[in-house]
Amino acid sequence: MDSVTIEEMVDRYGEDVWKLVFSYVRQEQAADDLTQEIFIKLYKKMDTFAGHSTLRTWIWRVAINHCKDYLNSWYKRKVFPEENGHFQMMSSGSSVEGAVIQKDEDRQLEKVVLELPLKYREIIYLFYYEECSIKEVSFLLGVKENTVKTRLRKAKRLMKERLVIE
Length: 166
Prior knowledge:
By secondary structure, the chain is mostly helical. It has eight helices and no strands. The longest helix has 21 residues, at 145-165.
């Protein structure tokens, strides 16, 4: 880990960690604060990275655990009111009309993902947005691969039902 500085980690992974955190907390200010806390924690624990996984996987594991701790904390439940926020989704359209339609579809999909229960939302986010494999998701969340597959199927079914209704 000597070859990577905290600044390089923030430059390389900062935006993606923020998006991951936001997928958990669904509050922009909280995502900002938690992302900063995560990178402070990573800096303090850099010497504990043993290289048993990739640097990215280690960062994601720390971030996921930090988010889950936050969500279980009294502070979050009592201090922060709910607020609306969103992912910055990438869209590709060749025309202005196509771009507007794509942006609207992205917002609808984003809304449906953010409304999923956490155990499904985290699977969708890691698998589709971060392009983690089933095995990586299993490791990051500390659940069996079959559990990941089952939750992924259930999440897709829930999303399909909600997208058809809207």
